[in-house]
Design a protein that fits this description.
- The complex is a heterodimer.
- By secondary structure, chain A is mainly beta.
- Chain A is built from no helices and eleven strands.
- In chain A, a hairpin with a 4-residue loop joins strand 7 and strand 8.
- Chain A starts with a strand and ends with a strand.
- Chain B starts with a strand and ends with a strand.
- Classes of the chains: A mainly beta, B mainly beta.
- Chains A and B meet through strand 4, strand 5, strand 9 and strand 10 of A and strand 4, strand 5, strand 9 and strand 10 of B.
Chain lengths: 114, 112
């Protein structure tokens, strides 16, 4: 079963609005990553947040992590039509030797209308 | 640098046929991974490798075999394809000391 559950499954907004996607996971993690997938393409890494961090920024992206609730959120500010894509959270489990294996959520499909 | 490349991009097989998917990376990455992506299920790890000559099972390894004879290549084999293996297959690689994975463009496989 999938480690991560993402919410919402689909999000439709207008250009300029903010988009927030949420991710929950089940086990303790070392880090949580967010990836973007444009239609028909491979995944592209966006941002990583470690288990001892609570918030991280990268350009128009803001990621938060709440380990007590086993959840993370990705905020895209001032969205653009080019942000239209599927967004996935992926976690690396804590403990032992994980070799960086990622467990993915089901993804959120974001559509930004011009 | 080409990054991570996958061959072929598309393939249609009949049940019982075999095939090999090739993943190549030119970034000298130690770790390589094979995932499958199915609608509504995100990506699931099939097999992975932490170095030349080593492979290990992931979350959904049944029906697949892998080999990593050269550091830059990671092969995924289907010995007897089944309709349940219809999926999009992604290869990824990473440097051992960093967590970011670099993905290939995917192979869309249909098994009839």
């Amino acid at each position: 079963s999938q480690q991560g559950e993402e919410d919402p499954q689909a999000l439709s907004i207008q250009e300029g609005e903010n988009a927030t996607m949420n991710c929950s996971y089940k086990t303790s993690i070392n880090n949580l990553q967010w990836y973007r997938q444009n239609s028909g393409r491979g995944l592209v890494h966006l941002i990583l947040i470690r288990s001892n961090e609570r918030e991280k920024h990268s350009g128009r992206l803001r990621v938060t992590l709440d380990t007590s609730k086993k959840s993370s959120s990705l905020l895209i500010t001032a969205s653009r039509a080019a942000d239209t894509a599927s967004y996935f959270c992926a976690s690396t489990n804590a403990g032992g030797t994980s070799y960086g294996k990622l467990t993915f959520g089901q993804g959120t499909i974001l559509t930004v209308h011009p | 640098n080409a990054g991570v490349t996958q061959t072929p991009k598309f393939r249609v097989l009949k049940t019982g046929q075999s095939m090999t998917l090739l993943c190549a990376q030119d970034m000298n990455h130690e770790y390589m991974y094979w995932y499958r992506q199915d609608p509504g299920m995100g990506l699931r790890l099939i097999h992975y490798s932490v170095g030349e000559g080593t492979t290990a099972k992931g979350e959904v390894p049944d029906g697949y075999n892998v080999s990593r004879l050269k550091k830059q290549n990671f092969l995924l084999g289907l010995e007897s394809a089944a309709p349940s293996q219809t999926s999009v297959y992604f290869c990824a690689s990473r440097v051992a000391v960093y967590n970011e994975q670099f993905f290939g463009p995917g192979t869309r496989l249909t098994v009839l």
